[in-house]
Amino acid sequence: MFDTHCHLNFKAFAGKEEEIVKSAQKAGIQHIMIPGTDVKSSKKAIELAERFEGAYAAVGIHPHHIYKLKVKSQNLKVREELLEIEKILSHPKVVAVGEVGLDRHIYKKTVYNDYQVDEKFVALQKQFFLMQLKLAHKYKKALIIHNREATDDLLRILSDNRSLITDCRMVFHCCEPEQELLDFAVKHKIFLGVDGDITYQKDKQEFIQKFPSELLVLETDSPFLLPEPLRSKRTYPNEPKNLKIVAEFIAKIIGVSLSKLENITEENSKKLFQLN
């Protein structure tokens, strides 16, 4: 199996990465994609991908962390950050740009004390997303797209830049249950990432019934989105080994065998990241 989104580079796993990877492999997860969320975590993703067989890295700036660039010299900072990302894109373990996108959610827990989402901040997110979209296209990398409460903005940018969309080279990470996203994904052959929250969100359980199997990929978003029944037991953090729980749940609700689902999603994941 292939966990297409696991933040093994986050502090929740610091010093325990080898143990986490071994547990995942024992559960049948042989491939792990480690996305960056800023320059530092992107470089850490590469270090970990080098350490473990079957691990790969994505590099990019998450929309939430663009907040630190909301300063007077933001244009200079934007160029500096993007240059750092571009420098590491050529590393052989880097197969994607991500996690990038748009985010209008107001976070209660954040490293930014004065965090607020205003139109100036959203405009900077849009600028950064488009630049990273162009980088993915230029270097022929997959694109891992984050979207939270910003579907209209996201689809407008993608629609206005159709020439940058390559079939089967993008994924809507932890896809929100919105018909507009599904319609756009089907039209442009964009993969749809499904995580542990499907085990407790009924709207996502209904939403996945509409998915074409050829666009489905599985994620844990570790250390987040712990699936049930582990969520009720509060056995944090989430780990890539729990992808098996997500797969078993999905196989049951869409009516396919677990082995068939595993084969389909692994092939889809390899196609997304061009690993065949």
From TrEMBL:
<feature type="binding site">
    <location>
        <position position="146"/>
    </location>
    <ligand>
        <name>a divalent metal cation 2</name>
    </ligand>
</feature>
<dbReference type="GO" id="GO:0046872">
    <property type="term" value="F:metal ion binding"/>
</dbReference>
<dbReference type="InterPro" id="IPR001130">
    <property type="entry name" value="TatD-like"/>
</dbReference>
<dbReference type="GO" id="GO:0016788">
    <property type="term" value="F:hydrolase activity, acting on ester bonds"/>
</dbReference>
<dbReference type="GO" id="GO:0005829">
    <property type="term" value="C:cytosol"/>
</dbReference>
<keyword id="KW-0479">Metal-binding</keyword>
<protein>
    <recommendedName>
        <fullName>Hydrolase TatD</fullName>
    </recommendedName>
</protein>
<dbReference type="GO" id="GO:0004536">
    <property type="term" value="F:DNA nuclease activity"/>
</dbReference>
<dbReference type="InterPro" id="IPR032466">
    <property type="entry name" value="Metal_Hydrolase"/>
</dbReference>
<keyword id="KW-0378">Hydrolase</keyword>
<dbReference type="Pfam" id="PF01026">
    <property type="entry name" value="TatD_DNase"/>
</dbReference>
<feature type="binding site">
    <location>
        <position position="99"/>
    </location>
    <ligand>
        <name>a divalent metal cation 1</name>
    </ligand>
</feature>
<dbReference type="InterPro" id="IPR018228">
    <property type="entry name" value="DNase_TatD-rel_CS"/>
</dbReference>
<feature type="binding site">
    <location>
        <position position="7"/>
    </location>
    <ligand>
        <name>a divalent metal cation 1</name>
    </ligand>
</feature>
<feature type="binding site">
    <location>
        <position position="173"/>
    </location>
    <ligand>
        <name>a divalent metal cation 2</name>
    </ligand>
</feature>
<feature type="binding site">
    <location>
        <position position="221"/>
    </location>
    <ligand>
        <name>a divalent metal cation 1</name>
    </ligand>
</feature>
<dbReference type="InterPro" id="IPR015991">
    <property type="entry name" value="TatD/YcfH-like"/>
</dbReference>
<feature type="binding site">
    <location>
        <position position="5"/>
    </location>
    <ligand>
        <name>a divalent metal cation 1</name>
    </ligand>
</feature>
